[in-house]
């Protein structure tokens, strides 16, 4: 396993397992299998409604808690100091743990400054070993980073070969925030798994398109959390540490970057109105 060291000295696995859209009734089984495969970083969220399954799998695995890196996120309906503070306790209860390794604000909407104060408090109390944000574009990220007492340690954003977040990464690196990818496979959009560049490079190394794409992100120092409910895919996604892409291959994949989201934009008024409708 490869690791990154966050700006507070905490070590985080560069490869983890995500449970976004994993049905609650399937989560325990999926996380159990992921842990058996070798994953030691699990990413969940309040909005996924499967924190309980993650907690049950971790407890049932018999693996010491300190060997597993747990991430969860505060949803926008829990934004604000009081609600966020209560929701953190609820997440810890569901996960059956005294602390999480990484606590994120899921979306840059609502009173996320209040949420951040609650997170700083949880951090100082040892209920979160690291805190950060998710889906914060450079403008919102820089605003929070400038005024926060505890600087964000992670920003989890859409990152894959077609959206490499080059500008956002520049500012994160400048201020010591680690980039973390959600959607490293872009959910297969843009004919991801048949891309000729990824396919050709992968064949050269005896690897799949998915493995090639993950290896690219890892070499770009991006933390990744691929998700699958199938054990064979979990194993395939985990098997990415026995080869290295050449500088030329890295440049070819960098050239695939379109610089735009394949999902949504927080700068789009209709997208913002949709998020506001949840409140």
Automatic annotation (TrEMBL):
Active site residues according to the UniProt entry: 48
Binding site for substrate: 106
Stored PROSITE patterns: ALDOKETO_REDUCTASE_1, ALDOKETO_REDUCTASE_2, ALDOKETO_REDUCTASE_3
Keyword rRNA processing: no
Superkingdom of source: Bacteria
Protein name per Swiss-Prot or TrEMBL: Aldo/keto reductase
Protein family: Belongs to the aldo/keto reductase family.
Domain NADP-dependent oxidoreductase: 20-256
Site positions for Lowers pKa of active site Tyr: 73
Keywords: NADP, Oxidoreductase
Gene Ontology MF term list: oxidoreductase activity, acting on the CH-OH group of donors, NAD or NADP as acceptor
């Amino acid at each position: 396993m490869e690791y990154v060291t966050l700006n507070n000295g905490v070590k985080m696995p560069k490869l983890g397992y995500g449970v976004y859209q994993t049905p609650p009734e399937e989560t325990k089984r999926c996380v159990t299998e992921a842990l058996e495969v070798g994953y030691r970083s699990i990413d969940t969220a309040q909005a996924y409604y499967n924190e309980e399954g993650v907690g049950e799998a971790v407890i049932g695995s018999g693996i010491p808690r300190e060997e597993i890196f747990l991430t969860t996120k505060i949803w926008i309906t829990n934004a604000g100091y009081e609600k966020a503070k209560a929701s953190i306790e609820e997440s810890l209860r569901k996960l059956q743990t005294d602390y999480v390794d990484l606590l994120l604000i899921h979306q840059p909407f609502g009173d996320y400054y209040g949420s951040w104060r609650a997170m700083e408090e949880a951090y100082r109390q040892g209920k979160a070993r690291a805190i950060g944000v998710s889906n914060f574009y450079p403008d919102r990220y820089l605003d929070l980073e400038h005024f926060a007492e505890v600087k964000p340690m992670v920003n989890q954003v859409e990152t894959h070969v077609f959206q490499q977040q080059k500008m956002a990464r520049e500012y994160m690196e400048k201020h010591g925030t680690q980039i973390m990818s959600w959607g490293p496979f872009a959910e297969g959009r843009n004919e991801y798994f048949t891309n000729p560049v990824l396919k050709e490079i992968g064949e050269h190394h005896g690897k799949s398109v998915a493995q090639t794409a993950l290896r690219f992100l890892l070499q770009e120092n991006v933390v990744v959390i691929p998700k699958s409910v199938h054990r064979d895919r979990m194993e395939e996604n985990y098997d990415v540490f026995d080869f290295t892409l050449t500088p030329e291959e890295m440049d070819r994949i960098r050239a695939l970057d379109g610089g735009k989201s394949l999902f949504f934009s927080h700068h789009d008024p209709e997208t913002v109105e949709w998020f506001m409708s949840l409140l």
